[in-house]
Amino acid sequence: MRPLPRLPLRFLLALLVAALVAGCGFHLRGSGSGQLPYKTMHIALPETAEVRIWLERYIKATGDTRLVDDPKAADAVFQQLGDNRQKTILSVNAQGRVREYRMQLNYSFRLVDGKGREIVAPNRIALSRDISFDDSSVLTKDIEEGLLWRDMNNDLVNQIMRRLSLTKPKDPEQEDD
Asked: What family does the entry list (predicted)?
């Protein structure tokens, strides 16, 4: 009979830490988030709107919420209140040429039920990114700007989904005063 090998102290410590982290409810960012508390949802935006396309992707990928075309048949209706995107000069060099731009995105939305009662009060999300500029590489900076706008859209939709997933649906039997 061979004696049982001694487990190294490091292994036991790692196993203990893993058990503690798993037991405390720890989840990686993004896992389990995005579950909307609504069975059906309507997005009141044009079919080609970037925010609508991204929201549809997230909703279809993360939960049981079904997207419907009729706002009256939906448990929740997403309404855009404002979408303002602008690019402003942040700094110039000694010759008066632009060195940096600031890209800003201000977005506001609300959520109502099929009867028009407000579920989520108007929310405002403000994002900004700074981008350096160089006259000698205009094409690459243009591509970089496009990627930053795309990153901002992704961040915007992530924030919208987080805010919507935290809401609690109102009881349909209960009427507002």
From this structure: Belongs to the LptE lipoprotein family.
